[in-house]
Write a structure and sequence with these properties.
Blueprint: H1 3-25, E1 34-37, E2 62-65, H2 73-84, E3 89-90, E4 93-94, E5 107-110, H3 111-119, H4 121-131, H5 135-140, E6 148-149, H6 174-179, H7 182-189, E7 192-195, H8 200-207, H9 213-240, H10 244-265, H11 276-280, H12 289-298, H13 303-326, H14 337-346, H15 351-355
Parallel strand pairs: 2-5
Antiparallel strand pairs: 1-2, 1-7, 3-4, 6-7
Helix pairs in contact: 3-4, 3-7, 4-8, 9-10, 9-13, 9-14, 10-12, 10-13, 12-13
Amino acid sequence: MNGLELSRAYYETYGKPMLAEFLKEYPGLEPHIAAGLIGSGSECLGFDDEVSQDHDYEPGFCIFLPGEDIVDRRSAFLLERAYAKLPKEFMGFTRPLMQPVGGARRGVLRTEEFLKDRVGTESAGLLIQACTASAEASVSAAAPLDPVSAPAAEASLNSSSIPAVSPESVPISHWEWLTFNEQSLLEVTNGELFCDPSGDLTRIRQALAFYPEPIRRKKLAGHLLLMAQAGQYNYQRCIRHGESAAAQLAVFEFAKSAISAIFLLNRRYQPYYKWSFRALRSLGKLSIEAELLEFLITSGNDDEMAEEKYNVIEGIAADVIDELMAQNLTQAVCGDLEKHAYSVNDGIEDGALRNLHILGAV
């Protein structure tokens, strides 16, 4: 049983009955309380294992509340107390008495504060304003919905019971999107919601499910250019200079940008480096490159190996170009990633974003 399954079982066993009891006293709050497991931690990605259990690992879940104009401080405090009284032990795991570094990951959270920590105050407010249901919709949705989940990315963000919201439909500018940290976006959209009666948090997760297409293109163009510079150009030059360490750094830069490009081609947010290869192997497109990239960064640079590594670099580049062409992202017809980078950038309709330096989004 992984952490997400543990959290869901704990919610079903203790959390759901606790919320039902609480809502008997405050029935008007039912449409506004969402619960699930999203945010920080490998368990929200489904990547946790026995090693993960040595820190910040517990049977618990998140309860998300709207602002004080809807759920006042007293109600929130009473709900916090009810959560704190839930059993501390469950299926051999214990809830810690102290909060992890960085603040509470589980328990009662204000949705707006959760978003502010990840996308900033202004964008959090815009998202809530754009994605919060009207009073009539909230009332009609008072009966709990089926669980809405998004394990590690986009899985179930498009629930048929909730009107879909796209990144393009929220009033967040391209310039604001450029400021968002990718890991923070993943923390909003990962994991699973066990209940979301109003659908508000689900719509927010839909709105941030992935970058708008112009942002995807800008980021992709930058990473393609870095792949070309580090892998197709500088790796062999470093070898000829006799700079084996520099050659390996070039390989690292190529691998980092190749991984980023592959996630962008899959329309998936990339987890931070510790889980990048794990997530890469699970992608629908170009996951085969994980083994080749691992070879590149773990092998040496003697003459014979250097030639083999360069051939692998060109093979990965060719596979990426094939996918660019399959997605109609490039008009270039060649094996040079630099030319494809500029072609991808040229396809951005927003003139100001297109004219931003090609590396401006990476």
